[in-house]
Specification:
Elements (H helix, E strand, L loop, with lengths): L6 E6 L7 H14 L3 E5 L2 H6 L3 E4 L26 H13 L2 E8 L1 H12 L4 E5 L15 H22 L2 E6 L6 H10 L3 E3 L7 H13 L6 E6 L5 H12 L3 E5 L11 H19 L5 E6 L2 E6 H6 L6 H10 L2
Parallel strand pairs: 1-2, 1-4, 4-5, 5-10, 6-8, 6-9, 7-8
Antiparallel strand pairs: 2-3, 10-11
Helix pairs in contact: 1-9, 5-6, 6-11, 7-8
The protein binds 6-O-phosphono-beta-D-fructofuranose (F6P).
């Protein structure tokens, strides 16, 4: 390594999402193209604290653009949130001459990045989570793949629900965010969608809606429920009880987090990874890469963490209007 050559690191943190590998690949190759040394840190901040650092080259990221998951693995690290953990992380950065870090993950990972930045290691966040719930960004890497997976699964459920005149209550991911549920519901034409952002009185709103729609001659139903919007089995039991429609509950779970990323996720991950390296190469830290009006931009990390993202009530309204 030439003395003047700058070293940057890349890590993935929090829940994985399809397209993280494409982002890693973009960071590594853009970094090398900008004459920087790039190291990968395994298992997020946990690996940073423990010195799990590996040299990356052009070939370390071959044949990964189409793969789900993250070749750098990911973890949650309570220790990193302590001052002692932070000091360990700083020592590792010094040891490996890491003078900039690309952090691919969600809001929690960005909070870690802002703390590390405040301790003198410039960090740039890249939004990666299937939930699409990062306030600063209209889009997060992995969302499109997750929604397409959920849509495909619900299309399959629809086939069998239709054959049996049944109701399917299907839970999609999103403990705190209803974006996957909303887009899935619109894409599959679900009779109703339940999201944590908009409370729904099941007995006063959901059941009357199903009964009303039943009177129009509909015989099979799909109810999409975000993970954080209620208990899927209880909702299915209530529907069966109150409407006499035979009802089944399905939890899609982690299948939504895996799989080969869609074109959209590969494209955005590539552009965001490249953009993050442009910032780091220019010596800028404390930034978050984001999508605004369909373009890749960046924000101050502290301001980004204070932003809020209003739920798309219009699309929710559209879903309720046309999915009957
Ligand atoms: O943040 C992504 C996400 O998949 C959420 O939708 C979900 O609630 C959570 O992660 C599940 O986390 P874990 O994989 O730790 O169970």
């Amino acid at each position: 390594m030439a003395d003047a050559q700058k070293t940057i690191g890349v890590l993935t943190s929090g829940g994985d999402s399809p397209g993280m590998n494409a982002a890693i690949r973009a960071v590594v190759r853009s970094g090398i193209a900008a004459d920087m040394r790039v190291v990968g840190i395994k298992r997020g901040y946990h690996g940073l604290i423990n010195g799990d650092v590996t040299e990356m080259n052009l070939r370390s990221v071959s044949d990964i653009i189409h793969q789900g998951g993250t070749i750098l693995y990911t973890a949650r690290s309570p220790e990193f949130q302590t001052e002692a953990g932070m000091q360990k992380a700083i020592r590792v950065c010094e040891e490996y001459h890491i003078s900039g870090l690309a952090v691919i993950g969600g809001d929690g990972s960005f909070r870690g990045a802002s703390a590390l930045s405040a301790h003198g290691v410039p960090c740039v966040g890249i939004p990666g989570t299937i939930d699409n719930d990062i306030a600063a960004s209209e889009y997060t890497i992995g969302f499109d793949t997750a929604v397409n997976t959920a849509m495909d699964m619900v299309d399959r459920l629809r086939d069998t629900m239709e054959s049996h005149d049944r109701c399917s209550v299907v839970e999609v991911m999103g403990r705190k965010a209803g974006w996957i549920a909303l887009e899935t519901a619109i894409a599959v034409g679900a009779t109703a969608v339940l999201v944590p952002e908009i409370p729904c009185d099941l007995e006063k709103e959901l059941i009357p809606r199903i009964l009303r729609i039943q009177k129009t001659g509909k015989r099979h139903y799909i109810i999409v429920v975000a993970e954080g919007a209620g208990n899927t089995t209880e909702i299915a039991n209530l529907i069966a009880d109150k409407t006499s429609i035979e009802t089944r509950a399905t939890v899609l779970g982690h299948v939504q987090r895996g799989g080969s990323p869609t074109v959209r996720d590969r494209m955005i991950a590539s552009e965001m990874g490249y953009h993050a390296v442009e910032l780091l190469a220019a010596g800028q830290g404390d930034r978050v890469v984001a999508m605004k009006d369909n373009r890749v931009v960046d924000y101050d990390i502290y301001k980004a963490l204070e932003m809020t993202k209003p739920f798309d009530k219009k699309m929710y309204q559209i879903s309720n209007t046309i999915n009957i």
